[in-house]
Amino acid sequence: GNPGTVHISNMRESLILCGPVQGSVFIDECSNCKIVTACQQLRVHTTKDTIFFLHVTSRAIIEDSCGLQFTPYNWNYPELSTHFSQSGLSIEVNNWDKVDDFNWLTSKEHSPNWSILPDEKKITSWD
After folding, report:
1. How many Å apart are CA 118 and CA 127, to the nearest integer?
2. d(CA 60, CA 80)
3. Residues near 110 by beta carbon (within 8 Å), at least 6 away in sequence
4. Contact 84/91 with Cβ under 8 angstroms?
5. How far, in Å, CA of 3 to CA of 127, rounded?
6. What would the pLDDT profile of 21-63 be if each residue is shown by its tens digit?
7. Mean pLDDT score, 105-125
8. Burial 73-89 (b: 16+ CB within 10 A, else e)
9. Largest CB tally within 10 Å, which of 35, 49, 122, 126?
């Protein structure tokens, strides 16, 4: 099934694989993690040095965080398209690279707290 909301807190050096979530994914106090998730909204608080493999239909929001990297969701498993359908998430709409940093309100310069993961650092297989 598809959860309505997911809360991930106080994780260290962890890999989290999560299929489509109907609503929000809340991340708090995590560090040195790899988080793979699809959701309607991503909220990240007080998290550092974490990579997100993300499918999000709104804009990701970060606050009091640094060293975050983003790249498109790339986990695949047999029930994935069914889970996307059941969750109500659009598989065509992915705003993985649209991140609002609530600690960096100027639009004239890119936030220093997040970046796009370079291609050579992407994980291509989760087996």
Report:
1. 21
2. 21
3. none
4. yes
5. 23
6. 999 999 999 999 999 999 999 999 999 999 999 999 999 999 9
7. 91
8. bebeeeeeeebbeebeb
9. 35
